[in-house]
Amino acid sequence: MAAHRGAPPRDWDQVSQSVADVYFPHELTPIGPGSRPRLTLQTLDLGPVLLGYVGWGADIAIDCDYPGAYEVNIPLTGHFVSQTRRGSMTSVSGQAAVFRADSACRITHWDATCTVLGVKFDRTWLDLEAERVLGSDPVRVAGVLPDQLDLDRGGGEDWRRLVNSLASHLRRPSLFAGSPVVSEQLAGAVAAGFLLTSCPDLGTGSPARPRTVSRVVDAVRDDPARPWTVADMAVLGGTTVRRLQEGFQEWIGCSPMEHLTTVRLQRAKADLESRTSHSVSDVAANWGFSSPSRFAAAFRRRYGLSPSEFRRYHRHGGSH
Question: Where is the HTH araC/xylS-type domain (predicted)?
């Protein structure tokens, strides 16, 4: 999907169709006489997860049934007011409104200054992820999802940072188009963070036992380049994501994904120390990093040098 920002005023039907083509069919009603749209629309497609900036540039109301997908809308500027099971709800920056799949919803006022970062989850896929992440029936998960998430503290803040880091790539919507493995990993991370934040009372229990943690540790070390998600690790260990995370913290002192990154960095470091002609980008890709820039940042945090600096230092007789 091509990115659009600050498009000139167009017919409301055309603007509505542009958004419907990316997100959901809906009924759009401009508020106030003579209002004209100024559409903001940028998207990043990760397969079962779609991220996007959406702004109408005018006051509107919108009705939607969210067929086949969950939607989470995070206001970046302005506000919108939606009708929930408990009545009217206003969402502003630092909050996220959660809309359930196949459920009628009305946003009674999306103000002209409001731009949201939307996260769309395919329903069937997210239901399967809920079983893997929380070990819970999807019907139960849908029943306990909140209407609104607090993104200013705790797990909500962590999830917002993850989504914002991915949203930084919205100016390059085709960035991961040729990397389905990377897209799968990123989609899994977004889903796991959302589910753990939204359903804090599901998937709880005793932390994973040392034997379970060891099984996952061994599998990661045997194949660190595999497109692991934390849900994949939980399935391998026969537990839920939350219990696996608690077990890793108790027995290893880090999260499963932090352990994966450590192993990948160790393998990448060994490659850079060798006399191979692989570029830094090749090394990053070989060990499952989503981009050379993310690899370089993680490498510098751990070893104090960029991958290129480390390679030059080592080849000139240094050690690190």
Answer: 214-313
Q: What are the tokens at 259?
A: 């352990």
CATH architecture of 12-167: Sandwich (2.60)
Read off the tokens for 287. Answer: 């060990």
pLDDT tens profile 183-235: 888 899 999 999 999 988 776 667 778 999 999 999 999 999 998 888 899 98
Domain ranges for the chain: 12-167, 268-315
pTM above 0.90, yes or no: no
- What six digits make up the tokens of 312? 């030059």
Question: Does this chain's domain 12-167 share its CATH topology with 268-315?
Answer: no
Q: How far apart are CA 155 and CA 41, in angstroms?
A: 28
The CATH number of the structural domain formed by 268-315 is 1.10.10.60
